[in-house]
Design brief:
- Helix 2 links the parallel strand 1 and strand 2.
- The chain has 13 helices and 27 strands.
- The strands form seven sheets. It has a seven-stranded mixed sheet with strand order 12-25-26-27-23-24-13, with helices on one face. A seven-stranded mixed sheet has the order 21-18-19-20-14-17-22, with no helix packed on it.
- It is α/β, with parallel strands linked by helices.
- Helices cover 26% and strands 23% of the residues.
């Protein structure tokens, strides 16, 4: 039963943790960990894992370690170590003390390996990689034992020490667990525990030339840190057998326990660090924090709030089975959040000059504009109004179709927060392009309503030509056109499904003067256009640059419906 004080655990993992606490399974402790490998930036999938691991620690009065799973010297980099910490803090989580590093456990892991060898539970194999692969067998055939499997313990100890001392080149030997080459679980056919790698490690330098495998290092790192609940994604379900074998064979207590949950998959998105790295390295995007990237730094730069990301993670929940989440859910959560929080502003993205012929030449009026209709406490601001304005090019049509209620010859519309204006004529250049629209205004309609009660259907936004500020606006869209990038046919690379129009850069925009010095990172709703965020890298005082976070409505849903219906 749930009470207001102790709401029912909301997913199966939280139920397990609650049950374990009730049964005093881990001595009443809850310790989780978030174990990124510092070989790339964190992405929205990691946010799900963080909300789970850090979230459970917070909810159950436990702790969650940040552990860098850094025992692969080749692709790890201190830049990633820093970025990962920044992203975790930004998302709103923290860890106790210094971050942990699996590379700090090298000596302990080595000692545990010696124990396994002494117990005749591990041996040095000297087959080549290819031979080992051939010996492994298949799902239907058992593996074959290596001729080195029965090396005496003393010989194994000697060889393993010499591996550590750097006597052998890469690939000459490996240390393997001695489990069962006929196990129906292929992973249990004497899995590799250590490899020789003569490589510079970003923290330990050349102190080590043997490195533990994930399966060996992960369970022991959990044990060393006193982790109780080791939560990982479903791909590691098979690995649990090795996890348990290592800890049980070494007789380690108290023992962490691994539980798997479904990773986050998002359509129109790739969430593999290898692929994200490829996008960066091959220049498809401008770095890990490109606003089109699903990385936390990319989403942040795009204008996503940490609250929206956490709320998204909460809503999608944590399940046992893999599924794919529609990216529209993510877009929905940022719209919800920004609708409540983002001040409104007027910005004209593709300007067309509008001249009010009967408006006094030198007059400037300050129009009162509401900052957020969802939140009266956000107040209002003054926007200067004058004879020459800019409106959106597509808010005027010479020959309007049915259902078009914006400006057209002879048509009256409302200029938001200002006056009703009626179009008298359009000016064209020699090529027939409309360069100016002329209107007259009704001075009795200040604020946008006519005293005689006449109805005007269209309301358009505007900025004063003289007072507005030039701005650059980048309209971002989904990075991929295909819901499952790379999945369509065999042999199609995911990059072939990139959206060639994932960004449109508009350099001639005009924004209301209050946006001139928009703080980098500040977010707005540009009326009728969407949510935008001043770019943290390139926006500067009087030269603002805005990134579109998301349009006001889901334009893809409509396209998909049309595409699906045809
Ligand atoms: P990738 O497959 O993208 O390279 P990874 O799993 O190797 O990711 P790690 O740095 O090892 O990346 O991940 C740290 C933690 O985040 C792991 O516990 C992992 O299970 C979790 N994680 C990674 N991707 C996702 C995802 N898409 N959904 C949920 N959790 C994830
Ligand atoms: Mg990993």
């Amino acid at each position: 039963m749930s009470t207001p004080d102790s709401p029912a655990p909301s997913d199966f993992i939280r139920r397990i943790v609650a049950e374990d606490l009730k049964n005093n399974k881990h001595g009443g402790r809850v310790v989780t960990r978030f174990p990124p490998e510092p070989n790339g930036y964190l992405h929205i999938g990691h946010a799900k894992s963080m909300c789970l691991n850090f979230g459970i620690a917070l909810e159950f009065g436990g702790k969650c370690n940040l552990r860098f799973d850094d025992t692969n010297p080749e692709r790890e980099d201190p830049e990633y170590v820093q970025a990962i910490q920044d992203d975790i803090r930004w998302l709103g989580f923290g860890w106790e003390g210094e971050p942990c590093h699996a590379s700090d456990y090298q000596e302990q892991l080595y000692q545990f390996a010696l124990q396994l060898i002494e117990a005749d539970k591990a041996y040095v194999d000297s087959l080549s990689q290819e031979e080992i692969r051939l010996h492994r067998g298949t799902l239907t055939e058992p593996g074959r034992v290596s001729p080195y499997r029965d090396r005496p313990v003393e010989e194994n100890l000697d060889l393993f020490r010499r591996m550590r001392d750097g006597e052998f080149p890469d690939g000459a030997h490996i240390l393997r667990a001695k489990i069962d080459m006929a196990s129906p679980k292929v992973i249990m056919r004497d899995p590799t525990l250590y490899r020789i790698r003569h490589a510079e490690h970003y923290r330990t330098g050349d102190a080590w030339c043997i490195y533990p495998t994930y399966d060996y290092a992960h369970c022991l790192s959990d044990y060393i840190e006193g982790v109780t609940h080791s939560l990982c994604t479903l791909e590691f379900e098979n690995n649990r057998a090795v996890y348990d074998w290592v800890l049980d064979t070494l007789g380690l207590h108290p023992r962490p326990e691994q539980t798997e949950f479904a990773r986050l998959n998002l359509n129109y998105t790739v969430l593999s660090k290898r692929k994200l790295l490829q996008l960066v390295e091959e220049g498809y995007v401008n770095g890990w924090n490109d606003p089109r990237m699903p990385t936390l730094s990319g989403l942040r730069r795009r204008g996503y709030t940490s609250e929206a990301i956490r709320s998204f993670c909460e809503q999608i929940g944590v399940a046992r089975r893999d599924n794919t989440v529609d990216i529209a859910h993510l877009e929905h959560s940022i719209r919800e959040d920004l609708n409540r929080r983002a001040p409104r502003a007027m910005a004209v993205l593709r300007p067309l000059k509008l001249v009010i012929d009967n408006y006094p030449d030198t007059l400037v009026e300050e129009m009162e504009a509401i900052n957020n209709p969802e939140d009266a406490s956000m107040g209002s601001r003054k926007v200067p109004f004058s004879r020459e304005l800019y409106i959106e090019q597509d808010d005027f049509l010479e020959a309007p179709p049915k259902n078009y209620y914006r400006l057209a010859p002879g048509r009256e519309v409302r200029l938001r927060y200002a006056y009703l204006v009626t179009c008298v004529r359009a000016v064209k250049d020699s090529s027939g392009q409309i360069t100016e629209v002329h209107c007259t205004y009704d001075p009795d309609t200040r604020g946008g309503t006519a005293p005689d009660g006449r109805k005007v259907r269209g309301t358009i936004h505007w900025v004063s030509a003289l007072h507005s500020v030039a701005a650059e606006v980048r309209l971002y869209d989904r990075l991929f056109l295909h819901p499952e990038p790379g999945k369509e046919e065999e042999g199609v690379d995911f990059t072939s499904h990139l959206n060639p129009a994932s960004v449109e850069v508009l350099t001639g925009c005009r924004v209301e003067p209050s946006l001139a010095d928009a703080q980098p990172g500040s977010r707005y709703q540009f009326e009728r256009q969407g949510y935008f965020c001043a770019d943290t890298e390139e926006s500067a005082p009087s030269k603002p640059v805005f990134n579109r976070t998301v349009a006001l409505r889901d334009t893809w849903a409509k396209q998909e419906k049309t595409a699906g219906g045809s």
